[in-house]
Design goal:
The structure is a single chain. By secondary structure, this protein is of the alpha/beta class. 44% of the residues lie in helices and 16% in strands. It has eleven helices and eleven strands. Helix 3 runs parallel beside helix 4 (83-101) and helix 9 (236-245) runs antiparallel to helix 10. The longest helix has 19 residues, at 83-101. The protein is globular and about 55 Å long.
Amino acid sequence: MIVITAPTGNIGRHLLSLLLDAASTHGEELRVIARDPARLPDAVRGRVEVITGSHGDAEVVDRAFEGADAAFWLVPPDSSLSPVDAWSEFTRPAAEALAAHGVGHVVGVSALGRGTPVADRAGLVTASLAMDDLIAKTGVAYRALANPSFFENLLEEAGSIREKGVFTDVVDADRKAPLVAVADIAAVAARLLLDRSWTGVGDVPVLGPRDLSPGDLARIMTEQLGRPVRYERQPVEELRATLVGYGLNETFVQGIIDMKQAKDNGLDAGVTRTADTASPTTFEQWCADTLKPVVLS
């Protein structure tokens, strides 16, 4: 039995599809935790057991992890909380349930940066790494998917790209860093959940095929969208004011800023890309398949 949290999210929906395709071959039963089961496709609801509720709720995870062999763990960031509360405190009931029910293997969505000089002051990433430590202490075999920023983050900029030909961030335009598609993260998670021969605790970096700078992204988007796209570096204080104006928790906002500044200082540069850590989806392919339909809609 594999338990999947956040099954309707960006990563979870890809993962659920992959596991459903493989379930009969591998003889796996699937159980999902969903706040709103109506968001699951009808065909999916007929093939999985559904536990309704939040996976931050002790009663919900206690029911979900009973009899489970493995679990996929993803914390949906809650911008109304501090980073510690959003990651570690949200995860604490699940960690207790994992230990109580003897769940053997857990795959979690985390971040790059462990072991780098800025890991302890990287905001949301620091909180995510602390969550990994909390799960690891339960005694489960644990693999943290150590991810860089997602291609999909640019979907939040689709309106600005469409209307102004501009996307923004606070990092240097020439700062090259790994980037990854969420579908590739799901593929690595599926492989680990289906082949549970691994033991102990460790990170599994998922780095995309190559490092890219904001300048590279602008050039590729221009080519793929057939219209000019440029990058504008946003002042940190302007970003802070915008996010606070949206009503986000000020501590969470500081966590976002600390994370972005840490990335600009090499947070994601601590792992060398190899055949094992690279993932296949190129930014060009993602732009053509995912971003272009949204921008041109």
